[in-house]
Amino acid sequence: MKETSSYVISNIAYNVDKEIDRLKGQVDLFWDKEFLRYKQFGLKNKMSLVEFGSGPGFLTEKLLDSFTQLNITCVEIDELLVKFAKNHLRKQKKKCKIIEGSILNSSLPENSFDFAIVRLLIEHLPDPIDAIKEVYRILKPGGVAVFVDNDFEMHIRSYPHIPQLKNLYDAYCKKREDEGGHPLIGRYLPVLLNKAMFKSIDYEIICAHSSLIGDEPFSRSEGVGIPMKLVQDGYLDSKCLANLSINWRNMMKSEDHLMLRQLSMCSGIK
Ligand SMILES: C[S@@+](CC[C@H](N)C(=O)[O-])C[C@H]1O[C@@H](n2cnc3c(N)ncnc32)[C@H](O)[C@@H]1O
What contacts 173, CB < 8 A, 6 or more positions away? Predict the structure, then answer.
């Protein structure tokens, strides 16, 4: 299935396997705080849950491990990731159905799910509102949707400060926007859910901080794959990336260094 998205795993980074590992690191980085919010927004065991843009299935795995009687339907557009997820989640296949399809036209019946999670997907779509409306359509009345997205003006920050991170995120935003994405969408989520007729909208920014969880989860959720692709595609200067790498290593060696990163979470009820 072909549709426009600014996230195509075979294209966004230098190496697909490393990008899959990075996605795992990114799920792990936020999981504890994220899971608390899912529960706060109403997620309970035995619900029927749909996850759009489920990718390799790392979030699905965490959800099934935490709520053993959840019934999850995953809708993922990329054939390669559907295959990966089916293999990764093969032991859970009775509780988890993985469908190759698009959030823009899921073919799922309307009024059929208790809960929907859409994580790091609509920031990559040219018309996020169409995706939000499709999620509204397939939820039961009273069902809850949670959208989780980045806002790249509030991406990783560090101490000591690394000036080239701004160049990197500017280049990233330019590339994603050229491809039709919305890399600052995090802040707009409540406005978009309102437009799609969701009620009781709630919004949180969750934050991972290295002084609380250590450096390792940050190292696993970052990587040079996307920055190298930005250089290759002419969006980032190679000297800038080289200086960023030197400053990053020096930052990590600094005794009182720290890193923090945020994610927006927005929920609404149908
Ligand atoms: C950044 S990844 C996030 C994967 C996963 N949700 C996570 O948080 O780790 C974005 C995912 O959305 C998928 N995707 C992109 N466009 C899509 C669409 N129109 N419908 C469904 N999935 C889509 C991509 O293939 C990819 O797996």
Answer: 152, 183, 184
CA–CA distance, 105 with 160 (Å, rounded to integer): 45
Each residue of 36-88: pLDDT tens digit? Answer: 999 999 999 999 999 999 999 999 999 999 999 999 999 999 999 999 999 99
Question: Which atom of ligand 1 is nearest to 55's Cα?
Answer: 27
From ligand 1's centre to the CA of 186, what distance in Å?
16
User: DSSP secondary-structure letter at 108?
Assistant: P
Domain count, the chain: 1
Tell me, in angstroms, the distance from the centre of ligand 1 to residue 176's CA.
14
Query: What's the CATH number where 143 sits?
Result: 3.40.50.150
Cα three-residue angle 216-218-221, rounded to 5 degrees: 110
Q: pTM for the whole thing?
A: 0.97
**From the CB of 5, is ligand 1 less than 6 Å away?**
yes
Task: Compute the mean pLDDT over every residue in the chain, rounded to the nearest whole number.
Answer: 96
Dig out the tokens for 29 from the structure: 């980085």
Q: Is residue 165 part of a domain?
A: no
Asked if the structure places residue 218 within a domain, the reply is no
Nearest CA owner, ligand 1 atom 10: 121
* Ligand 1 mean position, distance from CA 161 (Å): 31
Best of 2, 3, 4, 5 for a ligand 1 pocket test (most atoms within 8 Å of beta carbon): 5
Residues 6+ apart with CB under 8 A from 75: 50, 51, 52, 53, 54, 99, 101, 102, 103, 106, 108
Residues 178-217: pLDDT tens digits?
Answer: 999 999 999 999 999 999 999 999 999 999 999 999 999 9
